[in-house]
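Postdoc handover notes: sequence design on the structure in folder B. Input tokens:
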């Protein structure tokens, strides 16, 4: 046996309850009853906290991966720039135009190769094991 109880909801909340009831093919009473039971459940707060904790843990792992990838990208770029500046000799004015044309050709090739790698789902950053990034080379950090 059930007792009757009249409650008042704001129209927008009542619409949400009705929409959910229609989608789930349940009565509005069943939706409201489930919400009240969940609210009054002693472990409801624990379940919500566990759900938040799982989400925060997932977000923390994502941030750690992002931090790792950005660090790798910055170090890779810095290493390349240092190498390029070290080995690239200055060009004479006569060779400058030819070098610019060759540079554009090489850059177009680079962009095409990058596009192919990304289409295949390949990533240089995924090829680097986690433990390699965390190791401090000998002589650094002393």
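Designed sequence:
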């Amino acid at each position: 046996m059930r007792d009757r109880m009249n409650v008042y909801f704001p129209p927008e909340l009542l619409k949400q309850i009705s929409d959910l009831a229609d989608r789930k093919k349940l009565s509005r009473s069943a939706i409201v009853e489930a919400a009240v039971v969940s609210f009054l459940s002693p472990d409801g707060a624990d379940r919500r906290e566990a759900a938040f904790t799982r989400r925060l843990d997932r977000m923390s792992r994502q941030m750690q991966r992002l931090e790792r990838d950005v660090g790798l990208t910055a170090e890779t770029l810095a290493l390349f720039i240092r190498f390029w500046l070290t080995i690239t000799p200055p060009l004479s004015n006569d060779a400058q135009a030819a070098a610019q044309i060759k540079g554009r050709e090489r850059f177009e090739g680079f962009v095409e190769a990058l596009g192919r790698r990304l289409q295949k789902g390949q990533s240089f950053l995924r090829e680097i094991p986690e433990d390699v990034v965390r190791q401090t080379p000998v002589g650094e950090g002393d």
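Context for whoever picks this up: The longest helix spans residues 44-87. Don't rerun without checking with the PI first.
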